[in-house]
Amino acid sequence: MEAESIPSLSPLIESADQWGELLLLLPLLVALEAVLSADNAIALAAIARRLHDPNRQRQALNIGMVLALVFRFALILAARWVLDAWPLQLLAAGYLLWLSGRHFLQLDQDEDEDAEESISGGDASAESGAAGLGSLGRVALTLGFTDLAFSLDSVSASVAVSDNLALVVLGAPWGC
User: Fold this and answer.
1) What would the pLDDT profile of 43-52 be if each residue is shown by its tens digit?
2) I need a labelling partner for 58 at 20 to 30 A (CA). Which of 27, 45, 140, 144 fits?
3) Are residues 74 and 155 in contact, defined by beta-carbon separation less than 8 angstroms?
4) Helix 86-105 vs helix 107-120: angle between axes, to the nearest 10 degrees?
């Protein structure tokens, strides 16, 4: 008689299988998050240095990391939704093909425009916008969104490794 044929043992066997997945995949997901998020720390520290006071830098980093964690959870949920929506995947693939085709077809034209811009001195409005990023709230928000941009690769890898949403969410904080 097989153990799976006994109804009272089926939940026990299924839970053992879930624990086995947890014990094998959670360390892998944590390692993926750590490796793919190592470069984030350098970029986030550079952004926080815009605040010259070390206490405000720490405060901005703390607020930014909380925002980053919230954004990362939202990104995981969005990634799971995208994986279940094949029409959206088809649209995204078409967009990426269009974008790459446009890039390669207009490469010479863009190089000419870049050369003209470097001669004229660039855009003065971009320089004035960077100077206004001194407030704590703006820096913290910038930190959160920068981490979100950097976490696209680690969330994609995590969602590809496991289809267990709870397991992916457990691995996510290690990358922030």
Assistant:
1) 888 888 888 8
2) 27
3) no
4) 70
